[in-house]
Design a protein that fits this description.
Layout: H1 18-34, H2 41-48, H3 52-58, H4 62-66, H5 70-82, H6 90-107, H7 109-121, H8 123-147, H9 154-178, H10 185-205, H11 232-244
Helix pairs in contact: 1-2, 5-6, 5-8, 6-8, 6-9, 6-10, 7-8, 8-9, 9-10
Length: about 250
Amino acid sequence: MSGETRQRPPNGGRTKPAMRDALVAAALELFVERGFEQTTIDDIVALAGVGRRSFFRYFPSKEAVVFPDHERCLADMSTFLAAGAPDDDPVHRVCDAARLVARMYADNPAFSVRRYGLTRQVPGLRTHELSVVRRYERVLADFLRARFAVRPDRTLRADVVAASVVAAHNHALRAWLRSGGSGDVLVDVDQALEYVHQAWCDLCAAPGAGGGADGDPADDVVVVFARRGVPMWRLVQGVEAALGET
């Protein structure tokens, strides 16, 4: 990533219950062999060798069993964002949070590729997947709105940055899935997310990015006082906020 080594966020180190894994494996096998609509929950629990009650202990629906780790990943993402330092670059932080999702897919490439093929065939699964993606985007946007609180355009900027991060992440992830899981998806996602971060850095630094009414930076003069060692992104944020209020 532009010569910079990014530290990957922790994966939580949780152990998955064996029964849960058995249900996921049985469901995917049946969905591929028989079809999603033709497979019942009773079929899944019979193949997994567990009771029907055990299924609902882990999953609320047939759709959810195809995406077994997303709830955990959403929780991990929220925890990771909340643990950030106040001086963290917020765009870098949400990019790092998105890497948690990429790692979840990379941890089990065979399952991820098979699920991708299945979701392309079943409209109901595609709809469920899109709803999960929207929840990821909402978590990122909520974090950014809090970090951009001093900006008059905080809601718009937070929503656009969050959507950009999700779009870049998914572009790299889906290319990897379409390839059958060849290559290093984490490297591909790193490059895509760096593209987003660099685009926002360039936007902040562009002439007239926060200038006067006619876009000429000479229309306004802003003096910013800051302690030594304050990150450059925070200085830029302060200048933009001041110009936006004039």
